[in-house]
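Please check this one:

***
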Amino acid sequence: MENCWDVLEWLGPDTSTSVFMCLNDPSDLVRASAVSRSWRRFVILNGFSKNLCKRICPEISNFTRVIEVRSSERSVEVGSSSAIEWESLEREHKVYTNLSYCLVSPKGKKDCIVDAISASSTDNYPDERIDNTLEPRDQVDTRPSYWSSGGQVDPGVPETLTYRLISRLCIVDEIKIQPFKAFFQFGDPIYSAKSVRFRMGYSRPSQGTGSCVTDGYAKSHADADDNYSWMYVSPEFPMVQENVLQSFKLPRPVICIGGIVQIELLGRVQKQAMDSLYYICVCHVQVMGRPLSPVLEVDIRGTVGNSVLKYFPDASFGEDEARESRWHAFAARIRHLGAGRGWNLNTFFDP
């Protein structure tokens, strides 16, 4: 066809780059790369898919490189100094295009918690342990089900609840918490916090193991930071003193690299009449998001900002749904069987 020209050539590389950097939807980049071979080459060479992921979710910057892993082939590194050829750039484009769709898609959203790791304090262990917050009901077999902090004279003393997610790589955009209403106390007091804040990251290598008694104590009286590296800290959200499942939406989707979420409960509002101490009690917690396994996994190489993103093209998100559902059901049965028996549940859930 005569009198046709390529808009990219007409605009020039600098202006064209500025235009493409204004695209905020992964679908727009896919459509642009499908216009012609030259447009596709321009999109891939300039890494627009990766840049879009980083704009949506800055945690992407922690991935120093990408590895593609096939079941029948040797792993192929993407983005390293020895792999700057076109094939490598094309693989990187594929990986980040996939990830960008996951970041903006509402599909597959679910409660991602698989295990309760520890609480900063527990008033009456194991009856008021953190595991109770995984039970959606506030009563089980006519008994109240909730976690309670230790009592404090100072209402400003914070508490933390730490959880493990179903995958070491999850997109999280919302956390739900239900304060506990003590229906067995006069006036039905609600032991909520004043506000909440959330941290996401990974667990550091453990230094040895302890006995069941030691593990139980550690689970109910855990230090907030000694065992974890945090890669994201949320703003502070106010909590209302109501016995409802309260939703706290994050300002943007967050990739939880490492699969650990910690809830900071800041400030106390309710004093218990019998001892005049302040408590915080929670009956249910959900971390809403989307696990990225088995298609995407992460290999954390010791320090923050030194993570390797693994891409498994032979896997699919759909095939993992049934396995996750069965695992959640199994975990729920184990927690129910272990209730009141003093079992060390970390034996079942630690990876």
